[in-house]
Specification:
Two copies of one chain form a homodimer. By secondary structure, chain A is α+β, with helices and mostly antiparallel strands. Chain A has a domain of 107 residues: PSTPO5379-like fold (2-Layer Sandwich). The first copy, chain A, is 24% helix and 25% strand. Chain A has seven helices and eleven strands. In chain A, strands 1, 2, 3, 4, 5, 10 and 11 form a seven-stranded antiparallel beta sheet that branches. In chain A, strands 6-7-9-8 form a four-stranded antiparallel beta sheet, covered by helices on one side. In chain A, strand 3 and strand 4 form a beta hairpin. Chain A is globular, with a radius of gyration of 17 Å. Chain A starts with a helix and ends with a strand. In chain A, 47% of the residues are buried. The interface between A and B is medium-sized, with 13 and 13 residues.
């Protein structure tokens, strides 16, 4: 059941300072099914990609060759939904608020659990997420406009290409945060210290350089809200594998729904 | 043809400040077949592991799960001996001074080229090497005792276990450098800035903690030479995959001979 926006904002506030275990429990029971930005602050959040073992080598190599959009946090053993390094008590079949099931590059379902799609040959990959550095930026008084608006961050397909690996190829996807001009240098410096969360921005201030024509038409997430004097700052984004899946069209993949991340036990 | 020790020392001195291209040319023609420590200073050196595609996923995952001993620099496409990211003009079949060919965990040959073993299903992995930070330590006046002695660094099997991945499991191997006690803190600080070259030491000062009984009996490399007041400092080592191969006994693997590394085009 998807909650109404008001309830979602209330719940997100409630969950902002809880432990990852409590946040995942609320998610597992579908009491929370919204975007996870701002939840369980202080813990790394992760993008999820699940593939059959037969495609796992090409995808693992894709991540190794493209560490900025795809920083690897954990890879499960085939058939196991347990991320032993990132959160050993979690179950990746239930513990994300919303998933996307892809067949030949098309989304065929957006469930809140993937128990009925689970198979013994599936391997799950957890990749770092830029939500992880948002708390540190906010702590320094650098405003997160999408937090203030209670929306998902805006994400865009770019003209930059990832290094291909085997059958997998696709564009770099970026997330964008409007940052007050006077805080841009500090923002770059701070986020460069988070290599497991995409690190430093890939572009500052010029959407056309990434072939982004209109910031008000994001490819994923919500319409961004800027204040006067804000500069658009772009980070490599963990939705990059989803754009790669749409382009490469492997037979079967499950991911998180954009913005609806896995909350790990790993401290930032 | 293996060169006599005197010629080897002379050649190594000659090659210490050349470009990677010139160093690899001398190696390709077998004019140089010795350990590469101190050669082409300022460029990353790399450990080599070559496996059939059928074992490549488990090995790639082994590296991702054990980044300290196995920092990935490059992975070739199956059948290609060209490391596109680390040195696109190189050929991994000829450009290392000496190789080890393993069958079921046993060394069956130590050739200076692997042209006759090359197959279309082979994948080559390049892993960072601690030789890369030695130059920076020496530049700061922290002595590299094995450089002074003209020997290979000493390497030891430890009681620590790597995280297993699929069919692959084995112990952590470390390299040891005797460091003057007054420079140990600086040594730790400097090397922690080289994550692609094994990073900070895993142990300082206590061989028994790693189950190393006798420093004068290294498992790989040469007898170490210490000066009074030196402390043994241990780093995760790129020979770790070779200990894993000896224990896991995959059908067919080629590696560099310990100490005889691949010289990349990547600047330190």
């Amino acid at each position: 059941m998807k909650l109404a926006a008001g309830v979602f904002i209330m719940l997100r506030t409630d969950l902002s300072d809880v432990t990852p275990e409590i946040a995942r429990a609320a998610i597992r029971t579908d009491d929370f099914t919204g975007p996870t930005t701002g939840i369980a602050k202080g813990y790394l959040q992760a993008n999820l990609v699940i593939l059959p073992k037969s495609d796992a080598y090409d995808f693992l190599l894709f991540c190794v060759r493209n560490p900025k959009p795809c920083p690897l946090l954990d890879v499960t053993d085939a058939g196991s939904p347990q991320p032993l390094q990132a959160a050993p008590a979690a179950d990746l079949r239930f513990d994300l608020p919303r998933y996307r099931v892809y067949e030949r590059g098309q989304v065929v379902a957006e469930p809140t659990s993937i128990a009925e799609w689970w198979r013994e040959d599936l391997v799950a990959f957890l990749l770092g997420c830029s939500f992880s550095f948002e708390r540190e930026l906010e702590r320094r008084g650098i405003p997160m406009r999408h937090w203030q608006a209670g929306t998902n961050v805006a994400m865009y397909r770019t003209n930059r290409r990832c290094l291909p690996a085997g059958r997998f190829h696709g564009p770099l996807v970026v997330s964008m945060r409007p940052i007050p001009e006077s805080r841009v240098a500090e923002t770059v410096e701070v986020t460069s210290g988070f290599p497991q969360a995409h690190g430093a921005p890939v572009q500052v201030g010029s959407p056309p350089e990434l072939d982004i024509e209109d910031l008000d038409r994001p490819d994923w997430g919500d319409l961004p809200r800027s204040e006067p004097g804000d500069v658009p700052v772009f980070w490599a984004c963990g939705v990059t594998p989803q754009a790669m899946i749409q382009e490469s069209k492997p037979g079967f993949v499950i991911t998180h729904a954009p913005g609806h991340m896995f909350i790990t036990d790993l401290k930032i």
